[in-house]
Design a protein that fits this description.
Oligomer: single chain
Largest sheet: 11 strands, mixed
CATH topology of the largest domain: Isopropylmalate Dehydrogenase
Number of domains: 2
CATH superfamily of the largest domain: Isopropylmalate Dehydrogenase
Distance between the termini: 38 Å
Helix content: 40-55%
Strand content: 5-15%
Order of helices and strands: EHEHEHHEHEEHEHEHEHHHEEHH
């Protein structure tokens, strides 16, 4: 049964185990984000990591925030196999808290590969899931949120995997984003049914049979425009699409800033349009999303951007709370149970 998030009820608030040592600016930004979330979000937070370092960034004791000691930290560039020898790392200790029921969700802004490997080792997959997937949430041109998966967990995949990504993604969008009958699209090089490699062509046929709101192939520009609520892809293509989009947005705002600063007239005009610029920046700000779950892991495990600032960490904690409240793992379990299981060892 899902735990309540309401204080004063007979059930305790949702508890998020937070990897305090994960991220480019950990533990400082992680602790500041946790403090922000603790002030305005009804959630208990466990900061997992080296207590001495964490306490150096805590102004005072917080009633809904505590520290759980973990002596090791997995570096951002460490291989995923590091979890095997670093059993007292903040990632592995946090995942054990989730497994043992001391936490309802685990959130890390650290090494994504290590989180995925540790989650598979500690929690395993939802029954019937062939391969877990990484998801990326982004604001689209329609002003809503779209989900792209996979974005890096599976560089190579089979059509059955991509069809299952759609099943899991749809369950998330229905439960957390509250989109009824979300649309599903396949990221491809063209809109026509016969476009792409054999992977895309076979996946298209599977999705056409499986998804009642399958909108077909969509190209990269249509993905950003919001042609589908859930976009499925192999991890290689999805990762390139996400990184390219992030780079273009950063480049656009960088060029805009340089152009404004080049002229007093430009600066005056920018001051008059500052509200519009703030709105545009907010639309593309990754910090507003915070984190996304590892789809197919048998537990609420979420990851966020390694460059997370205070706002992104707080948003990530709120996202973790929403995933638990909405029962996303159970929804994925039910959705996958209604489809043919994918045995990852079956031949292509």
């Amino acid at each position: 049964m899902q735990r309540s998030a309401t204080r004063g009820s007979s059930q305790r608030p949702i508890t998020v185990a937070l990897d305090a040592m994960g991220g480019d600016n950990a533990p400082a930004n992680i602790v500041r984000g946790a403090l922000s979330a603790a002030r305005d979000t009804d959630v208990d937070i466990i900061l997992v990591g080296r207590g001495r370092e964490i306490r150096s960034h805590l102004p005072a004791a917080q009633r809904n925030l505590r520290i759980h000691e973990a002596s090791e930290a997995i570096a951002m560039d460490a291989p995923p196999t590091a979890v095997r020898r670093m059993r007292d790392s903040s990632i592995m200790v946090g995942l054990e808290l989730l497994k043992d029921g001391e936490a309802d969700a685990f959130l890390s802004f650290g090494n994504t590969g290590a989180v995925m490997a540790g989650a598979l080792f500690t929690l395993g997959r939802v029954p019937g899931v062939g391969r877990p997937a990484l998801g990326a949430l982004f604001r689209n041109g329609r002003g809503t949120t779209s989900l792209l998966l996979d974005v890096g967990a599976n560089v190579e995949a089979r059509p059955q995997h991509l069809a299952q990504f759609a099943t899991m993604g749809r369950a998330y969008v229905e439960r957390v984003l509250r989109h009824r009958n979300p649309s599903v699209g396949l990221l491809n090089v063209g809109e026509e049914e016969g476009k792409g490699t054999s992977l895309h062509q076979e996946t298209y046929l599977l999705l056409e049979r499986q998804e009642t709101n399958f909108v077909g192939n969509i190209e990269g520009n249509e993905m950003v425009a919001g042609a589908a609520d859930v976009i499925v892809s192999d991890g290689f293509t999805g990762n390139v699409a996400v990184k390219l989009t992030e780079g273009l947005v950063e480049q656009l705002f960088g060029e805009l800033k340089r152009s404004i600063q080049a002229s007093v007239i430009h600066m005056a005009g920018a001051w008059l349009m500052r509200g519009a610029f703030r709105g545009l920046r907010a639309h593309w700000d990754y910090a507003k999303v915070g984190s996304a779950p590892l789809f197919g892991i048998d537990g609420a495990v979420l990851v966020g951007h390694g460059r997370a600032n205070t706002e992104a960490v707080a948003s990530g904690i709120r996202s973790a709370r929403s995933v638990v409240e909405a029962g996303v793992v159970d929804a994925i379990r039910d959705a996958v149970a209604g489809t043919a299981p994918v045995n990852d060892e079956d031949p292509d």
